[in-house]
Design brief:
By secondary structure, the chain is α/β, with parallel strands linked by helices. 49% of the residues lie in helices and 11% in strands. The protein is globular and about 80 Å long. Bound molecules: 6-O-phosphono-beta-D-fructofuranose. 6-O-phosphono-beta-D-fructofuranose binds next to loops.
Length: 546
């Protein structure tokens, strides 16, 4: 059933109109218990959604709508391996990579057996790299690991290795090459010595052009100094395409695969997480999986009104579809979480940036918001101006770890004070009277005050969620990311879209192939082939590069 067809939809619409005369601050003034009513805790994570224009009635209607959309059955279908990725006829089982279940069947086969076999091989390989048993061709230990991959084969490990840096082995440095821009790999190789470098070619398909181009450049670099035989010593692969990886020169035992039931942007819990596994070791990696598994169990078994990822999605649906929000800012107050906004951009927008529903019809409602973000307090001195005084209301997710891995003087308290203050400022704003009072205190003349007044007012009433996390550990990071995965899935259920395909990335790739040919070919009449802009751009580029 479509979202607009369910019974609660009209109730929600009507209620959003009713609430438009109220502000979030009014709701706080009316109810002393607002925080406890609109916040939930799980493990070391507190999720506060009270600073949204939401009341008990709206919450009740949202929960009802989740029930009317059969959300519970849909969650169970995902965990049970039903092929909910209907356009690609695939199950969606990234959760199997972190389960403790002994059996999950896909096409009659128990995939847990495969996962266990791969994990055993991958854990041994990672341990050998960490403790120097795995050596380069000249018998030296590996000091640098370079992950070559893009999209889901890049962002997850990049984000998690950075987030869990305090747990990283000091003996190995990690590098990530993703862009087909030669600068990415050239600048990385400049810092490295072939003898002590291990490349992980991370590509589910082993055909992605950017990754294969970078892998070939890395291979040439190794072969040039160490010879052809060195490929087996300095490359491993994470790929489902074993044949192509072997053809590349990688030893079969150093290729770690995963099933087509794991989508790229959901894949860091398995072999795509190899850089993280090497960085933090087996024990911490298992804690990371455990955090995500606890979030899975919470999502699967907790009633909707206490279920954090479900509530995250309900609040988002409320803001996007009833209060006209079109963007979401991810604002982690922790430098180690600096790649979380980048990671969530792919997770959220590649999953839900869609406008055709599961029945092949264009949707008649808004779907995925634009996601962007930056670590606090850097963002405060950049785009927060728009968050506070822009024409659009942006949903903000503040991620505030309480204990820092680098407690230094008053840094952490200042950081936290800033994060909490932003949530208050966005919600409360600053009234005309408050501005006048302040400017008078500065002894400004009345005509000056009248001129400045409109610019100094903050309308407030801008929505935000806050995640208060005791400390970033492998477990809390795993939990937080799994919450976002399940939130994304739940939004997909509301919008009746398939969150697990990504056909939108294909057209650009196709056209780039054709343009590449024309860039490399001697002159031909491009105006017969392209519109005048595209043809001229190709011509001018060719001319400059002649
Ligand atoms: O961007 C499209 C995409 O298919 C992503 O979903 C995926 O994570 C990425 O390309 C990389 O694909 P592969 O791992 O096959 O190289």
């Amino acid at each position: 059933m479509n979202f607009e067809e369910i019974q609660s939809y009209n109730q929600l619409k009507k209620h959003s109109i009713f609430l438009s005369d109220t502000t979030i601050y009014d709701l706080f003034k009316q109810d002393k218990d607002r925080f406890s009513k609109f916040s939930r805790s799980f493990g070391d994570i507190l999720f506060d959604f009270s600073k949204n224009l939401i009341d008990e009635k709206a919450f009740e209607f949202l929960i009802k709508s989740a029930e009317q959309l059969n959300l519970k059955e849909k969650i169970e279908d995902m965990f049970d391996g039903v092929k909910i990725n209907s356009t690609e006829r695939r199950a969606v089982l990234h959760t199997a990579l972190r389960t403790q279940k002994q059996s999950i069947k896909v096409d009659g086969k128990n995939i847990i057996d495969d996962i266990k076999t791969t994990n055993k091989a991958m854990f041994t390989f990672a341990e050998n790299v960490r403790n120097g048993v795995f050596k380069g061709i000249n018998g030296t230990r590996i000091l640098d690991v370079v992950n070559i991959g893009i999209g889901g084969s890049y962002l997850g490990p990049l984000m998690a290795v950075e987030a869990l840096k305090p747990y990283k082995t000091p003996l190995i440095n990690f590098h990530f090459v993703s862009n087909v821009d030669g600068t990415d790999i050239k600048e990385t190789l400049k810092k490295l010595s072939p003898e002590t470098t291990l490349f992980i070619v991370a590509s589910k398909t082993f055909t992605t052009d950017e990754t294969m181009t970078n892998a070939q450049t890395a291979k040439d670099w190794i072969v040039k100094t160490l010879g052809e035989k060195a490929i087996g010593y300095h490359f491993c692969a994470v790929s489902s395409n074993v044949d192509l990886a072997v053809k590349f020169g990688i030893e079969k035992e150093n290729i770690f695969g995963f099933g087509d039931y794991v989508g790229g942007r959901y894949s860091m819990w398995g072999p795509i997480g190899l850089p993280l596994l090497i960085a933090i070791g087996r024990e911490k990696f298992i804690e990371f999986l455990d955090g995500a598994r606890k979030a899975d169990e919470h999502f699967l078994t907790t009633p909707f009104e206490k279920n954090i990822p479900v509530i995250m999605a309900l609040v988002s649906i409320w803001n996007v579809n009833f209060l006209n929000t079109t963007a979401q800012a991810i604002l982690p107050y922790d430098n180690y979480l600096k790649y979380v906004p980048l990671y969530l951009q792919q997770l959220v927008m590649e999953s839900n940036g869609k406008s055709i529903d599961r029945n092949g019809r264009p949707v008649s409602y808004k779907t995925c918001p634009t996601v962007f973000g930056e670590v606090g307090t850097n963002g405060q001195h950049s785009f927060y101006q728009l968050l506070h005084q822009g024409t659009e209301k942006i949903m903000c997710d503040f991620i505030l770890p309480v204990i820092s891995h680098n407690e230094t003087g008053s840094h952490q308290e200042k950081l936290l004070a800033n994060g909490i203050a932003q949530t208050e400022a966005l919600m409360k704003g600053k009234t005309q009277d408050e501005v006048i009072y302040e400017l008078k205190a500065q002894k400004l003349p009345d005509n000056e005050i009248a001129k400045l007044l409109p610019y100094k007012i903050f309308t407030g009433n801008r929505p935000s969620n806050t995640f208060l996390i005791k400390e970033i550990t492998p477990e809390t990071l795993g939990m937080l990311i799994a919450f976002y995965e399940h939130k994304t899935f739940t939004e997909g259920v509301f919008w009746n879209i398939n969150s697990f395909d990504q056909f939108g990335v294909e057209l650009g790739k196709q056209l780039a192939k054709r343009i590449l040919k024309d860039l490399q070919n001697p002159s031909m009449d491009l105006l017969n082939e392209y519109d005048s802009s595209t043809a001229s751009l190709i011509e001018i580029v060719k001319d400059i590069r002649k």
